[in-house]
Write a structure and sequence with these properties.
CATH superfamily of the largest domain: Galactose-binding domain-like
Shape: flat
Largest sheet: 7 strands, antiparallel
Distance between the termini: 88 Å
Number of domains: 6
Number of helices: 2
Helix content: under 10%
Low-confidence stretches: none
Radius of gyration: 39 Å
CATH architecture of the largest domain: Sandwich
CATH topology of the largest domain: Jelly Rolls
Length: about 700
C-alpha cells in the first residue's frame, strides 16, 4: 500500500466447498519466496497460525526482497475449494497487499486462476466465496433395453443446466454419434451401431457448469443385431452444374456390391466410382442441357451381415451448357500478352499488352490469347469487359471468334476513362466516342473459341464476358427429388417486362404462386404427378430495346411421396413394396409406424397419450363407466399425405368389423398432425363384447 517492496499477511484462511474455513491444523506452508526472521520474527507460518495479531512479513532491513512475492499453502489432501479470506496486517499499512492474484492447483504444478484485483487500504477481512457451494455435475443415461436393430436414441440428463455438451463429449464403443439435440439439462443423442455390443457413457469432466467439472455417468450397454437394410443417400451436388461433377453416395454403414450396373444415368455418363470410407464418389459428365438424373437401382448393395438394400434413390441436377464470363488472366496465352498482379483487379491480376511491345496497328494472328465460351442459345452476342487505357495510343485490341481472319478492333476509350488509372466497364466496339454501334457476333449454341489479339501496347483488361442481344432465360430449381410444393427461380440476363405466370409451361403440376420483377422471378409449383417438368418458351418477355427472350433450359424434378420422405429421414427403406415390413421387429409394420408417428428404426409400441409431439398407436377406452358407455377410439392422422387414408371401424369380434358411422371429432395438433376421436354406436349394455381398430391404406 505504501509503495514499498514488502508483503504482509496476518491470516490467509482457505474455505472448503461449503464456504467453511478449513482448520489450520489441516494446512501447512508449502512454499514462500521470502520471510523476515532477522530484524524481526515474522515467518511465513504466521499467515496460518490462527492469530490475527501476528503476521508474515517478507524480508526488510539489510536486504529487501523485490516484488512480486508469493505464499503457497498445502491443504493436506485434494479437496474442493470454495474461496479464501485474507486478513491484512492490523498495526500498520506497511506491507498490506494492493494488487493480488489467487490460484489453486490439485498437483502444485498446474495452476488455475481463482481471483485477482486490487484491495483498498484497511484492516477489514477480504472474503472471496464465489466458488463455495459448487459441485461437480452429475448425469444419467437412458436408452433402449434388450436388442436394437439399427440406430437408437440415448437420453442424457444432467442435474444442473450445462451449455458445453455435444457429441464429442460422449464416449461410444461399437458405434458412433450421428446427432445430438437438446439444451440445458436434457439431451438426446442418436447412436449408429457398428458392432454386436454398443457401449455409451459420459466420461468425467465432460462438462463444467460450475467450475468443478462433472462426474462420469454409468455405462449404457446395448446389444445390436443388424436387421435393417442399408439406406442410400445422395449428397454434395449443387442445384446447377456447368460440366462434369461429383456426387457422394453414402449408406451409413459398410456395404458391398456397388458397381456401374447399379446406377442409371439419364442425360449423362458415369465416368468413375471411387470408394471413400463408407461412401462412394461418383463422377458424372452431362450429355446435353437440362436435368441430369442418377438412379440407384433397388437392392444394389448388401451390408456386412447380408441385409439387402431395399428401394433405390434418385438424384437430379440441372446442367446449363454455358460459359460466358472469364477472368482475363485465366486465358490461354499464345504470345503478345502478360499477366500482371494487381490487388485492384477482380481476380488479383489483369492481362495486358506490354508497353513498348507494339509499334504498329497491323494485325498479327500470332499475338493472341484465347477463351473457351460455351453459348447456350444460337443468336447474336456482344462482348463486354473491364478495361484500362492510359492514353489514346494504349486503348485497343482486336477481337474475333473461331479463327476469324478479319477480327474487329475493340477501342477501350469510348466512355472517357482514358488516363484515369482505373478499370471501367466497357463494350467491344469498332468506333471511338461516342458509343453508337457495339460489335455484334452471331454465334451458334455450343463451344467456341474467342480470341483477343494485341493491337495497342499498354492496353489492359481485367474481365471479359459475352451478353446475348436477346435476353437469356435460366431456370434453377432444387437439386434432387422434391417432397411437395417447390420453387423454381427464373432469371433473365437483363430486366424484362411482360413475363407472367401464364407464360410458365408446366407438366405434372401447376403454378400456385408467382412473384418478381425486372430480371428475377420466383415460381412456386405444386406437383400433381411423380415428376414435374418446367420451361419458359421464347418470346414471352421483352427487354427495353424490344428484343424478345430466348427459351429457357428445361427443368424437371422427381416428386417424393410423404411416405418416402418419412422413410428417408428415418433411415429405412422407403419403397411402397416394403411398407408392410417390420424391420425393427416390434410387431408393427412400417406403414402403421408412418401413419401414427412411430420410429421405424427402433422397437416402438407406445400408445398415443395426447401429447406433443404427436406419436403413438390408437387408443381405445370407454366413453363413460356403466352400461351406457361406448367404445371411444382416438387416433392420430397425418395431414396432407396424398394417398394415405384412415378408416375407423368397430365390431363384435376380430373377424366382424364395419366402418364407424358416428361423426368424428377432429382436433388439430400441429401443421403435420391432427387427432381424431370417434364413438361406437353400440353401448356396453347391449354389446358387452366390442372391438375397435383403424384401417390404414397407402395408395398406390
Amino acid at each position: 500500500m505504501n509503495g514499498n517492496p514488502w508483503t504482509t499477511v496476518a491470516e490467509l484462511r482457505v474455505l472448503d466447498a461449503s464456504g467453511a474455513v478449513i482448520p489450520v491444523s489441516e494446512i501447512s506452508v508449502a512454499d514462500f519466496d521470502s520471510e523476515e526472521t532477522v530484524d524481526a520474527f515474522n515467518p511465513a507460518a504466521h499467515a496460518i497460525d490462527g492469530d490475527s495479531g501476528t503476521f508474515w512479513h517478507t524480508e526488510w532491513g539489510a536486504y529487501e526482497a523485490p516484488l512480486p512475492h508469493h505464499l503457497t499453502l498445502d491443504l493436506g489432501s485434494v479437496r474442493a475449494v470454495g474461496g479464501y479470506e485474507y486478513v491484512p496486517r492490523q498495526d500498520s499499512a506497511n506491507g498490506r497487499i494492493a494488487n493480488y492474484e489467487v490460484h489453486h492447483s490439485s498437483d502444485g504444478t498446474n495452476w488455475i486462476p481463482m481471483d485477482s484485483g486490487t484491495w483498498s487500504n484497511g484492516t477489514g477481512t477480504r472474503r472471496f466465496d464465489e466458488d463455495a457451494g459448487r459441485r461437480p455435475a452429475r448425469c444419467q443415461l437412458a436408452g433402449p433395453s434388450g436388442t436394437v436393430g439399427g440406430a437408437f436414441d440415448v437420453t442424457v440428463v444432467f442435474d444442473m443446466a450445462v451449455d458445453d455438451f455435444d457429441g464429442a463429449d460422449l464416449q461410444v464403443t461399437g458405434g458412433s454419434v450421428a446427432a445430438v439435440r437438446g439444451v440445458g439439462y436434457y439431451y438426446v443423442a442418436t447412436i449408429l451401431p457398428t458392432a454386436a455390443t454398443v457401449s455409451v457413457s459420459v466420461p468425467a469432466d465432460a462438462v463444467d457448469p460450475e467450475g468443478e467439472g462433472s462426474l462420469a455417468s454409468a455405462v449404457l450397454s446395448v446389444d445390436f443385431i443388424d436387421t435393417l437394410p442399408p439406406v442410400p443417400v445422395f449428397s454434395g451436388v449443387a442445384p446447377q452444374v456447368t460440366g462434369t461433377f461429383d456426387a457422394m453416395l453414402g449408406f451409413g454403414e459398410e456395404v458391398n456390391g456397388l458397381d456401374a450396373s447399379d446406377l442409371i444415368v439419364t442425360n449423362g455418363t458415369l465416368d468413375a466410382i471411387v470408394a471413400e470410407g463408407f461412401d462412394y464418389r461418383l463422377t458424372i459428365t452431362p450429355a446435353s442441357e437440362g436435368t441430369v438424373r442418377i438412379d440407384l437401382v433397388d437392392g444394389a448393395v448388401v451390408d456386412t451381415v447380408g441385409n439387402v438394400m431395399g428401394g433405390g434413390v434418385t438424384l437430379s441436377t440441372l446442367f446449363l451448357n454455358q460459359r460466358l464470363w472469364f477472368e482475363a488472366e485465366a486465358a490461354d496465352i499464345v504470345a503478345g500478352f502478360e499477366v500482371v498482379a494487381d490487388a485492384s483487379a477482380s481476380g488479383g491480376a489483369y492481362l495486358w499488352t506490354p508497353q513498348e511491345s507494339r509499334s504498329t496497328w497491323d494485325f498479327d494472328a500470332s499475338l493472341k490469347v484465347s477463351f473457351a465460351p460455351v453459348i447456350p442459345r444460337t443468336g447474336d452476342y456482344r462482348v463486354r469487359g473491364t478495361t484500362r487505357s492510359d492514353d489514346f495510343s494504349s486503348d485497343s485490341f482486336y477481337l474475333g471468334f473461331d479463327g476469324d481472319a478479319g477480327p474487329d478492333p475493340w477501342h477501350t476509350n469510348q466512355d472517357g476513362n482514358v488516363g484515369t488509372g482505373q478499370f471501367h466497364l466497357d463494350i467491344a466496339n469498332s468506333t471511338r466516342n461516342p458509343l453508337t454501334s457495339p460489335s455484334v457476333f452471331t454465334l451458334s449454341a455450343g463451344a467456341h473459341t474467342m480470341e483477343l489479339y494485341a493491337r495497342d501496347d499498354g492496353t489492359r483488361i481485367d474481365t471479359i464476358w459475352l451478353e446475348s442481344v436477346r435476353p437469356l432465360t435460366t431456370l434453377v430449381g432444387p437439386a434432387g427429388a422434391v417432397a411437395g410444393p417447390f420453387t423454381v427461380s427464373v432469371s433473365f440476363s437483363e430486366a424484362v417486362t411482360g413475363f407472367e405466370a401464364s407464360d410458365v409451361l408446366v407438366t405434372g403440376g401447376s403454378v400456385t404462386d408467382f412473384s418478381g420483377v425486372g430480371a428475377t422471378y420466383q415460381v412456386e409449383l405444386s406437383p400433381a404427378a411423380g415428376s414435374v417438368a418446367v420451361q419458359i418458351p421464347e418470346g414471352v418477355a421483352v427487354d427495353d430495346e424490344g428484343a424478345l427472350n430466348h427459351a429457357s433450359n428445361p427443368f424437371s424434378s422427381t416428386v417424393l411421396s410423404a411416405y418416402e420422405v418419412w422413410a428417408l429421414a428415418a433411415g429405412v427403406d422407403g419403397t411402397v413394396a416394403t411398407s408392410l415390413a417390420d424391420e425393427d421387429r416390434d410387431g408393427i409394420a412400417k406403414l402403421l409406424e408412418f401413419a401414427f408417428g412411430l420410429d421405424p428404426a427402433v422397437s416402438d409400441r407406445r400408445i398415443d397419450d395426447g401429447g406433443i409431439p404427436a406419436s403413438g398407436l390408437p387408443r381405445v377406452r370407454l366413453s363413460e363407466p356403466g352400461p351406457s358407455g361406448r367404445l371411444e377410439l382416438t387416433y392420430l392422422r397425418r395431414r396432407g399425405a396424398t394417398g394415405l387414408t384412415y378408416e375407423p371401424e368397430f365390431g363384435d369380434g376380430p373377424a366382424s368389423f364395419s366402418a364407424a358411422t358416428a361423426v368424428p371429432s377432429v382436433e388439430g395438433v400441429d401443421e403435420e398432425w391432427e387427432r381424431v376421436t370417434v364413438l361406437d354406436t353400440e353401448n356396453v349394455g347391449t354389446a358387452p363384447r366390442r372391438f375397435g381398430r383403424v384401417r390404414v391404406t397407402l395408395s398406390p
